[in-house]
């Protein structure tokens, strides 16, 4: 069975809202099975088919993912369904991607015609050329010398062309793209951005206990401003209310800083990729918080931290 069209392409795997390239060498192709066209993907190394979808005319659509600019990524979508399959192109020549995409969609549309696209299938049980065997008979012994001379002459004429073919065959395949956020997620802004804005406007309105304020101060980097405020707070001549106001001002300035925002963005990104699970386990988090960490659910994780029993120690104290 011959493929109608094929293209070297790898899979993209969804992990915690991020699509990451599968490093395996793959082949995306359309094939004709009886009268139906199937969309398939297989591992080129093992020849194992891992994707086999019936191409219902007008339902699947293959198109480039314009939001990704670090690689050549295409998506197979299905009208009226949430099912999607992302691929990264592994062919060496990017200029061929659009031609493959166009032909891919044309073949699927053509499959709704009364007769599907024609393709020449070779029947191993039917001899070619009007009869006889596919394997030619050996030449008479007297002609071997003439054949050898002809072959050498042919190689001498096309030697350079063969070298070019070999060079093209050895061209490196397309590079894998970087991981990217699911383009279908509707997030006008990152949660880190919303958190920074909300915290900046609400911190000064919060009534922190002296213990909570002390813990917040301990999280700040030790700089000259913190040293001055802590030395003033330690002086008995400074009223406690004044010292607390100075501390809150320092905390608010830190939350508004560019360094804090960058750190918050990096934390959110690493959390959504599930890269912090091991570090978070060392913090004695409860099972609900760890489940959110394993799912990459940053917002749910933050809500759980505000609930009683978010940490194992709190659960043990309650018992």
Give structural notes.
The protein is α+β, with helices and mostly antiparallel strands. The protein is 42% helix and 18% strand. Strands 1, 2, 3, 4, 5, 6, 7, 8 and 9 form a nine-stranded antiparallel β-sheet that branches. Strand 4 (36-43) and strand 5 form a beta hairpin. Helix 3 crosses helix 7, helix 5 runs antiparallel to helix 6 (240-256) and helix 9 (287-295) runs antiparallel to helix 10 (298-305). The protein is elongated. Residues 114-137 and 162-170 have low confidence and may be disordered.
What tags apply to this protein structure?
319 residues; alpha+beta; 9-stranded antiparallel sheet; 18% strand
What's the gist of this structure?
The protein has 319 residues and is of the alpha+beta class.
Secondary structure layout plus pairing:
Layout: E1 3-15, E2 18-21, E3 26-33, E4 36-43, E5 49-54, E6 60-64, E7 73-78, E8 84-89, H1 97-110, H2 144-169, E9 180-181, H3 191-202, H4 210-219, H5 224-234, H6 240-256, H7 258-272, H8 277-281, H9 287-295, H10 298-305, H11 312-318
Antiparallel strand pairs: 1-2, 1-3, 1-8, 2-9, 3-4, 4-5, 6-7, 7-8
